[in-house]
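How a chain folds remains the central question behind the approach discussed here. No coordinates are needed to read the tokens, only the vocabulary itself. For completeness, the protein is quoted in full, as a sequence line and a line of structure tokens:
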Amino acid sequence: YFTTFDNGSNGALGADLLAELTRQREKTVRSLAAIDADIVALTELENNGYGTGSAIADLTDALNGVVGAGTYTFVNPGVPMLGSGAIASGFLYKPAAVSEVGTAAFLNTAGIFEGTDVNVPPLAQTFAVTEVGNPSFGEKVTIAVNHFKSKDGTGTGANADAGDGRGNWNQTRIDGANALTAWLAADPTGGGDSDVLLVGDLNAYVREDPIAAIQAAGYANLDTASYSSSDRGIWGTLDYAFANDRLAPQVTGVARWRINADEPAIFDYNEEFQSAAQLNNWYNVDPYRATDVDPIVIGLNLNTPVPPSDATNQPPENLLPAVPPTIQVNQILAPIDLAIFDRESGVVPLQVTLTATQGTLALPEITGLDFLAGDGTDDTTLSFLGTLDAINIALAELRFTPTADFVGEASIEITTDDRDTSRPGGAQTDTDRLTISVTAEVPETPPQPGSNDGDDRPSGTPSNPTIPDISTATQFCPQIGRPSQLPGPNSTLNTIAGRFVEGDDNPNTLDGRSQVQVTFSGWAGDDNLLGSPGDDLLFANQDADYIEAGEGDDWIFAGKGNDRVRGNGGNDRIAGDLGGDRLFAEEGNDLLFGNAGNDRVDGGSGDDTIYAGMDDDAAVGGIGDDVLAGDLGNDCLHGEGGDDRLFGNLGMDVLDGGLDNDRLYGGRENDTLLGSLGSDVLSGDRGNDLLLGGFGGDRFDFSPGDGSDTIADFTDGIDIIGLRDGLTFADFTFAQVGNDTQMMAVGLSITLRGVNTDAIEVTDFAQV
């Protein structure tokens, strides 16, 4: 962010014109205002001081112009410039929430942070929470913002590009990491607090040497399962947040806001190579593509108790189901309800080793784990490293498949090693064995005459209702379903072939089928964009367009209007934008965004991720393990085949898991959740929800305050009620209301249709 414009010789970065600076300022301010952080760490500011007109003052004034005068101020380290380089790092903060403690400090070690081809001087400041009523009131944290030397240029010796992805200046970045952590250990701000957060653009991917050096100094990478940037086809993380061992237990959450890395560069503030019409239509005053990397947001509760560093290391604990599970022959066990706990978990990744007998283990969700043995696909032994949260998220998806036709006792042995050698007592482990009874299949006994249809409850006792036909959600959401014929192209007057083609205000067909790879921009009119077999970039822009990609991994932006998109093969990224769009990804592991309008989105085969977006949408995952999110509006989500995860979010939604073992989360308002076939997990969340598990042993999850929900087909002895967020069996009162059981707890009412209260026991519940 520069307020000085590049004249070709002054080395200025950022905007080249006042118009570009205005556009950049608008986008940057919108993103900062939306994040609404108490403290903001910034990199790549112009190093032009702290007076009126400086980059940091200009940005602060613009931000306050949107969020309110005086909301933010900036840290002034008391020097004319932060070193002698072109760029600097900085802090904004809310004086109503925090205050500066000690002095702002920066490191300008010659050859590392000062000179030619060096890292930007790091800036550190200790902040105290001064907002009355904040749980962290009176607590302090020291934050250091950094910007290491980029991979570009031409290094020599240890700084030369070795051709392995590390690029140039790797040794300079390593030296910067070592000097930085040593400096922070000496309390450079004089703030007198040992909680340290290290953030910034380190220009090194997560497995590279500078990151290892920071971790070796006792810092934990707070976001190991994400990416922040895309650079010349390489996706990865260059921007980080690290916490030392004192701060790590006080981190309440970490998230990336996907507003930059996934967006094409043509949507940013630059005006080069764009016509007047493109400047107007490809730019919007919003947070998207304000810069080229995604912001990372960190939550802290600085009042969290932290064990003293000299306390004896306590062993981790494996948490097993209270009752060993039983399954029938050739039946998959999922979820298994395994978890781990480590009260001192922080910097050092935990190691978990799982060993199965008479079966194999699979982890469909492996994000954030570093595998040492096995890979999560049908292994007898799995061993991996990860944070406590990442491991428990993965264990929640663990599946056990018994050996074919085996009947008897199987098992899973779990060993957790905290690998913490920094405390007295050294590293600690916990090993447990979960037994799994695999029984022969029990045939159903046909009902005998006069036996009350095989039900041994006395005559007149309410019985479970007949399960409705819920193999699809069409009776609740008629618009769900794959059309018998996919859409075809528009009728146009003009066909343009080529690799780089831009349309005009007329309806055109841009034909790239004979090309290796294409970039098309359709512009106005009802256009056809026909991609190549390669990896294409297709922008339809305005009006009702038809876009058909080829077999490659394509990026498709349908733009405004009621568009129709076919992805065909490959792992495609498809965005609908405004209008009622029809998006069909077809084969491949695809990412789809319906965005605004009443959209129909179909993932097709493959493991797809669908964000339906605003308004009333219908989305079908297709064959594969899919993730579907409804967002705003009254949405209809159908997982179809595979182990799917469906999130209704806001609106009155209908979620249908379809085949296999699905997880359904209704979100807010009054939703309908249909598990259909398989062993599903259904959580209505807030609102008055209708839950139908369907065929298979299902779990219905509830938390305090979830509203008034109804389970239409609860089967005693087969289905389970999951209790979350501190809810226990003892919290409920039970009443027989007609043929139904009504269960009441704080802010929660559950009706079990056709179930006798006397049949409900503690064994029908599980803590999850």
